[in-house]
Write a structure and sequence with these properties.
alpha/beta, seven-stranded mixed β-sheet, 10 helices, about 15% strand
């Protein structure tokens, strides 16, 4: 941004005049502008949040997720997005539990912060910890980082996470697809989240994000205003289950979430209208 303000006044004026024109006429420019703004604004919010976390908890603590939640909830409006939630009652569950949801893009953070319960953190890829101010505030908020390339490390982290959930009475949010996916369906689920829930003997609460394809397309460079629907499904109890039940538990969860995903995505597409590409 310093480069922009150091421009000669005539050139700066030209840039400021061209900006609304490009926002109006070029969907590709809008895509890149919104993406840049989103990342930059989140890093700025993290910079504000780091001292707040240190003052609140003195260091790494899941209670710092409250700080992130309060800082991030307005961002959806800046991007022209609305979030509609159904099934709130299914999050009114006492004690620790595992939340699982589908994963489409970094925009998922907005939906997550919309409904994030107290004492809830998430499991994220290890690379995130190196993402500047965002990585630091994630670490301060008790996010569990795993190395997806090393299965043994991931299993060890999940075992520790199960113990931490019970000892500290926290909830964990996991994306069982394991990677971002915008192909219009759900990918097969990896088993880590289900091993975690079974090992800790805590319920699973499925959360489904509707498809973003009616307003956001990564490959086609499209990013317009739109609505995200979040549907919180009834909890799935794991009491009495063993490791032998993990595969069927994952399949059951996938089936329930896929049905909900197709249902709410159809509704959103009808209200937002299809993207032209």
């Amino acid at each position: 941004m310093e480069v922009v303000w150091m421009m000669p006044p005539p050139l700066l004026l030209l840039v400021l005049l061209l900006l609304p024109l490009l926002m109006w006429t070029s969907s590709t420019f809008v895509f890149h502008f919104k993406k840049f703004f989103y990342v930059a604004w989140m890093m700025f919010l993290a910079l504000l949040g780091i001292p707040a976390c240190l003052l609140k908890s003195g260091g790494r603590d899941v209670e710092n997720m409250r700080v992130i939640r309060s800082l991030v909830r307005h961002v959806k409006y800046l991007l022209g997005l609305r979030i509609k939630v159904s099934g709130w009652e299914h999050l009114q569950t006492e004690g620790p539990y595992v939340i699982i949801s589908n994963h489409q893009s970094s925009l998922d953070v907005l939906g997550m912060m919309e409904i994030l319960p107290d004492r809830c953190s998430t499991i994220a890829k290890k690379e995130l910890v190196y993402a500047g101010t965002v990585g630091l505030i994630c670490w301060l908020s008790g996010i569990v980082f795993i190395n997806r390339k090393k299965t043994s490390d991931a299993k060890s982290v999940m075992a520790d996470a199960a113990k931490t959930m019970l000892d500290q009475q926290i909830r964990l949010w996991v994306f069982p697809e394991g990677t971002r996916n915008q192909n219009g369906d759900l990918l097969p689920f990896k088993k880590g989240a289900f091993h975690l829930a079974v090992q800790a003997q805590v319920p699973i609460v499925p959360v489904v994000f509707s498809s973003y394809r009616s307003f956001y397309l990564q490959k086609e460079k499209q990013f317009k205003s739109g609505t995200i629907r979040l549907k919180i499904l009834p909890k799935i109890d794991t009491k009495g289950m063993t490791s032998e039940d993990v595969s069927s538990l994952a399949d059951q969860s996938h089936s329930l979430m896929r049905t909900a995903y197709l249902e709410i995505s159809k509704t959103v597409t009808q209200s937002n209208g299809p993207l032209k590409h």
